[in-house]
Amino acid sequence: MTQKPSIPTILHSLGLLAALCLGLNLGISTSGHAQEPAVPANKPSFEQWLVAVVEEAKTRGLDPAAVDGALKGVEPIARVVELDRRQPEFTQAFWSYLDGRVSQNRLKKGRELLVKHKTLLARIEKTHGVQGRFLVAFWGLETNFGQFLGGFPVIDALATLAYDDRRSDFFRAELFDALGVLAEGHIERKSMVGSWAGAMGQPQFMPSTFARYAIDEDGNGQKDIWGSLPDVFGSSANYLSQLGWDNRYTWGREVLLPKGFDLDLAELRTKKTLSDWQNIGVRRIDGTSLPNADITGSVILPAGHRGPAFLVYSNFDAILNWNRSLLYAISVGHLADRLTGLGPLQSPRRQENPLSREQVTELQQHLNTLGHDAGEPDGQAGPRTRAAVKAFQRVAGLPADGYPDGSVYEALSNAIKPQTPDP
User: Fold this and answer.
1) How many CA within 13 A on the CB side of residue 11?
2) pLDDT per residue over 81-122, tens digit each?
3) Phi and psi (nearest 5°) for 283?
4) Which CATH architecture has domain 7-87+151-194?
5) What angle (nearest 5°) sits at the alpha carbon of residue 84, between those of residues 82 and 85?
6) What pTM, to 2 d.p., does this model score?
């Protein structure tokens, strides 16, 4: 039996959450425990805050008994805040990310499941217009085919993050959607487990995604994305379909770029027909012509100009709406290809030395100092930082691929150094 946390433990959690709400830098001892700060006087206690949540839930039309039952005994989880604040020391490089997600074990299991569920997947594709190989690929990446659903009670995790000021509005809305899932009877509270951020079930839907796109594919009156594979696949396919998925086409492909390719063309915003890319000199990875299809695509370089190049289509944009990471979207597409027998990527591998978070933060600071707006230095190389890197690369005479690697870091460090006057 799991022991209930003591009052001091609960107070410790509340103090930790309140300090994080104020953006304080919490020191971590060598034992791994956060140093406990004082609770600010103007911050309501978690219990007081929860009373307001209960009242608001009822004004939203949620069943009072369901709300009271769902929120009874809810307590903040300090571990959830810790995970929300944690950033990996190093950014993950392209090949290591791909290898970790498109592993031999996952390929073997995915191929077996694609055959095992072929009848169900064919029916889902006929109804919703999403190929089964992609549904299995999402399933594999999100929860390793339903094996790892997360171990956090969704209501408690969302309440924790909604109480925390960092993204309180977002998680407060997700909390109400989660309460709606319970009020509608789709699952019991004790079985409603997910990730530390509240992502639920085998496809790891946030509650708002569940509310908009989950469906009762098996017709039993419940939208069960935890235990019903028809509901899992049907809901996932409905989501992708609503995002604009077109099952006449694939996600994209690895390509060869011509010598002297204009790197300014390598971005998602630049969309050209396949015939236009063909005329520019873009070819399939084996050197043959691109498909003769009436579709537009974009060239992307997720690992910079020295890494593999991809020509991606509208379905890739749909994958990005599921998860905004380029590496994640490529992994979904590549896994789906490999499940049906296509081979590994053909671009040569090179040694990857990813920048640390500290180095990315320093890089962003240098970019800002030189007048290239990288935004608030946060150690994460998002679109704004990549645009600033590209601007610096043009000025510095470097290949302008927007990729923040060691050469860019070194060039920026040299550019920011104070110049020694001539003797």
Assistant:
1) 5
2) 999 988 677 677 999 999 999 999 999 999 999 999 999 999
3) -135, 165
4) Orthogonal Bundle (1.10)
5) 65
6) 0.86
